[in-house]
UniProtKB/TrEMBL annotation:
Region (Disordered): 1-22
PROSITE patterns recorded: HTH_GNTR (PS50949)
The protein's name in its UniProt record: GntR family transcriptional regulator
Segments forming domain HTH gntR-type: 19-86
Keyword Transcription listed: yes
Single GO molecular function: DNA-binding transcription factor activity
């Protein structure tokens, strides 16, 4: 069973699963992919990664397998590795899955959220509303949502949602860059309403707010098919 507990990214894959070189390389590459240093569809050459980290091919291959299990890399036998890329249809499907299962994880999490965690969620919502740059917003937004799930104890659901978050990270960045002031205000308003529902212990309202919050991003992305052109 996997237990998620209060920490900055409670569903992040364990970066040092066995303390191996492959795990350490995977951690660095994961950060680079999630930060946008690698674009979707970009090829990751084993020899370049080995040179970058002063490692042999073996730990690099291990790192790429870890990242594939995280939903960040696609491995093609006898060909190579690429940063995972979604079509519009795939992205919409993933968001529809998220709309349905993330509220369930939030339901599991809510009874275990401490006053300190709820206070941190409020602080993050306020900090995002203050208008940070895109990359700062993405970091705070990720911490906000994953922290809200941190009370959950699951064997499958948490890992599934973690993989979906990783796979859609680039498209959240595109959404955040594209949205106008009206949508931006709505996003912050939804964050505040979600925190309010969690503080009241109103799980039904929190689930409803979260589903609508995810749906907003899906519908906005569907208006920009050019983002998915390879």
């Amino acid at each position: 069973m996997t237990t998620t507990t209060d920490r900055t990214d409670p569903m992040a894959s364990a970066p040092s699963r066995d303390g191996s070189a492959g795990s350490r390389i995977a951690t660095r590459l994961r950060d680079e992919i999630l930060s946008g240093a690698y674009a979707p569809g970009a090829r990751i050459r084993q020899e370049d990664v080995a040179e970058q980290f002063g490692a042999s091919r073996l730990p690099v291959r291990e790192a790429l397998r870890i990242l594939e299990s995280d939903g960040l890399v696609t491995l093609v036998a006898n060909t190579g590795a690429w940063v995972s890329h979604l079509s519009l249809a795939e992205c919409e499907e993933m968001y529809q899955i998220r709309e349905r299962i993330e509220p369930l994880l939030l339901r599991y999490s809510l009874p275990q959220l401490s006053p300190e965690t709820l206070g941190r969620l409020q602080h993050l919502a306020d900090e995002m509303q203050a208008g940070p740059d895109v990359e700062t917003f993405l970091r705070l937004d990720r911490e906000f949502h994953l922290l809200s799930y941190s009370g959950a104890v699951t064997s499958i659901l948490g890992e599934t949602i973690h993989r979906l978050w990783n796979s859609t990270q680039h498209y959240r960045r595109a959404f955040t860059t594209l949205i106008g002031p009206d949508v931006n205000r709505a996003v912050h308003y939804e964050h505040q309403l979600l925190v309010g529902a969690l503080r009241r212990g109103d799980g039904e309202e929190a689930e409803r707010m979260l589903a609508g919050h995810i749906r907003r991003t899906r519908l906005e992305l569907s208006q920009h098919p050019s983002l998915f052109a390879q």
